[in-house]
Amino acid sequence: MIIIISSPSGVGKTTVAKVLEKSNFERIVTYTSRPKRPIETEGVDYYFIEKEKFNELIKQGFFAEFSLVHDNFYGISKESLKSNSKHKILTIDVQGAAKIKKIMPSVVTIFLLPPSFEEWMKRINKTQRNNFDIRLKNAIKELDEVWNFEYAIVNYSVEKTVKQIQTIVYCEEVKCKENIKSLINELKSNIKQYEED
Ligand SMILES: Nc1ncnc2c1ncn2[C@@H]1O[C@H](COP(=O)(O)OP(=O)(O)OP(=O)(O)O)[C@@H](O)[C@H]1O
User: Fold this and answer.
1) pLDDT score, position 28
2) How far is the CA of 50 from the centre of ligand 1 (A)?
3) Is pLDDT above 70 for 40?
4) Which CATH number do you get for residue 11?
5) Which end of the chain has fewer surrounding CB within 10 Å, N or C?
6) Ligand 1 site: residues with CB under 6 angstroms?
7) What ipTM goes with this model?
């Protein structure tokens, strides 16, 4: 199962995803053409690649989704969205989430909200992100997109948010979906066989 966690900047999606990674979740690492910051690690925070290489990969159809933000490319490889034994977590901006949901309707989308404006500003300030004003301006549009998500979690504490996401996954796993069809058919044919014997 792929779980998308989206939020405006500074609400806490990266922090929450890193905690989930310690249990049975694999964090999808995305690609960027922006330079690596000193605190970032290649292959953990992003795969950092040159712009030329990024263009080449676009032409090869390597990305499921990509976007150009402030002159830097960000993208998700098709390979990383393939299913394996682990649940996957993708932290992505609100617009990216909408694009992925369109091409992969089975993804589960979660929107994180801050508990209050004051608490949110404290968190943003802690990370000392650039383009603070632009991030806040974008957040107005992003907040309106919450209605297109399946779940909305107010990120009061990381521990509680992680528990809520785990609960969502448990519930999603037992939803009536395609994967029970073969079991239902098998049970029905066993009943028929039993009746005939
Ligand atoms: N529930 C929480 N309670 C208190 N602090 C939190 C909580 N969640 C995250 N934080 C803190 O808020 C700050 C921003 O978190 P984080 O970097 O995870 O946000 P983000 O949504 O990934 O932001 P961006 O989109 O800009 O990368 C960090 O300092 C983090 O430790």
Assistant:
1) 96
2) 28
3) yes
4) 3.40.50.300
5) C
6) 7, 9-15, 123, 126-127, 129, 155, 157-158
7) 0.96
